[in-house]
Inverse folding.
């Protein structure tokens, strides 16, 4: 693998990870506005209902995963031109 390919691969990975983190932060803020409660944290809490925790896990997982996938797809497509 050449240096240019390595740098491109690292750049695409960083862009995808950044998109996932940004999406998760945006979803947290949206969750707080809709539910008037903070988004559930990773650790178990007595204040968090299991239904709420599972819903948050699904929403944040799908959102962040879709954002990472979209960025990788777009950047890979641009790179192949």
């Amino acid at each position: 693998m050449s240096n240019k390919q390595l740098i491109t691969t690292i750049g695409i990975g960083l862009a995808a990870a950044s998109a996932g983190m940004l999406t998760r932060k945006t979803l947290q803020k949206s969750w707080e506005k809709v539910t008037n409660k903070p988004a559930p944290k990773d650790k178990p809490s007595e204040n968090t209902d299991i239904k709420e925790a599972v819903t948050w896990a699904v929403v944040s997982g799908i959102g962040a995963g879709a954002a990472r996938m979209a960025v990788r797809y777009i950047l890979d497509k641009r790179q192949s031109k």
